[in-house]
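Hey,
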Amino acid sequence: MEETKSDKDAGLNLKSARRRAALSVGLNLSLSVVKGLAGFFSNSTALISDAIHSATDVLASGAAYVGLWVAGKRHPSFPYGLYKAETVATLIISIAVLLAAYEIGRSAIFGPDRIPDVSLAFPAAAGSLLVSWLFGFSQLRAGRRLNSPALIADARDYLADSLSTGVVLLGLIGAHYGYALDRWAAAIVSVFVFRSGGQLLISALKDLLDASIDRDTERAIIKLVESHPLISEVKRCLSRTAGGRFIVDLDVVLRTKSHEIADRISDRLEEDILSQFPRVVMSRIRPHFDYSPMLTSVMPVTRPEGKMAENIAKAPWFLVEIRERETGKVQKKEFIENPYWREERKRGYLVGKWLLSLKPDQIEVASDREGTAIALLKEAGVEIIIPSAGRAVNTSTS
């Protein structure tokens, strides 16, 4: 089931991410060539430096594409997948951003003074700025939608590139009016670019060092697992990130001695985790058995202290008893009204889900006729008991 989930999620998301990464490589290469030629013929050192910045981005974008391509591959030596190849690509991109920040700052402080041909350099710089800005935001949205750190890193690199191109434009405008503003603006921008690269570097290092997933998602996964009627608690939850994807391992306490039921519950919960948390690509649940001396028994009744109801979904009330498992002695009993017994549509499903929230160990029913509610309870491992003929079922609270 885990492989099927990986095939579907990594199949769709990675395929789309690869297309965008390939587009990024081609676009960066075009920007680098355009700015380099315009800088050379216009005698603009700033534009040539910006072209070098874009050329660095070509290598970084290529790394992102390679990382995304490798992430979807399978190899027996890597049982947890190659998702961290994308993290390695993110690491390379972060280093490229830091190098670009250094280049911008160095050119701003130590670069020679030249008088560029504004009429040639300005259109190239303005066009490059517009393309970088628009594609950067588009790439950022796509990266967040696809949960791809490599595309997000690539988008931030584009936005950093647009800032450096903006500095070039300020310098060209200053040159047109006789002011040298590009040095000071470039020095300020290099600080922001360096900060962006540092954040990407820290994020990639955390991923490579197996940082846990965010606490909110981890709590939500634990809550989902503990909602199962036969699970007492989650003893331990180990999680880690891998290229924007999540891998979780849980140790749970099950109130059953049946290995068959435990395996079925574990498999079902693993499926539920994968379906309800798209970023989780692998989940493993290890059951531990805890046979409690008390059990929770549920029975449909016509009214409080009334007789057993014939139809579980249409029963207006349910008797809930806490009994000693060995002696059968009732320690606590209460009548709970069925909130869904008047529903016209999906009544069996709603009642079944509601009964599961009561976490029963067993339920007594009048007949073996199976409906949706009974099917849900059976699938969850709840024991179905049919009283023998002639047996009186006492629902009195006295």
